[in-house]
Specification:
By secondary structure, the protein is of the alpha+beta class. It has a single domain, classed as Sufe protein. Chain: A, CATH 3.90.1010. Strands 1-2-3 form a 3-stranded antiparallel beta sheet, covered by helices on one side. β2 and β3 form a beta hairpin. It is globular. Bound molecules: zinc ion. The site of zinc ion has 8 residues, from α2.
Length: 162
Amino acid sequence: MDNSAQGGEKKAASYGEPKLNSLYQTLILEHYKSPRNQGEVENPTVEVHMQNPTCGDEIKLTLRVEDGRIAEVKHSGQGCSISQAAVSMMTQLLTDLPLDDAGQIAGRFTEMMHGDEDAMKDRSMGDLRALAGVSKFPVRVKCALLGFDALQEALKEIGASS
Ligand code: ZN
């Protein structure tokens, strides 16, 4: 299909924003502009800082764990819309979740970013499904996964310390 008649926006750089379904694009931008759970948890159980040097994305994830559940989770940092929207969507799902379930969502999202179609249809992924189209842009997959990389590192540290 030729969409060149509408919008007229052409980007020569392959590193530009991936062209996604516009409904999804809107949701991504909405999270980017009004991130959920932004900031830092006071007295966190674990704190992880992750960077994606290829794009300049940075995420600091802080978590407070109580009785094997994520009682509170916040993120701070900076970067492209995909990295920041993805971590915002992620924290939305994580609050009050048992640690095991958090690990499962991380695994599921990683599968989705590697093109797994079942994962793309999984309702438990919530708003994160808006990012499914990013899987077609390998260079941006790292952006989308950065928050989950931080989460998996955090889960590892919690596991190691308990
Ligand atoms: Zn990025």
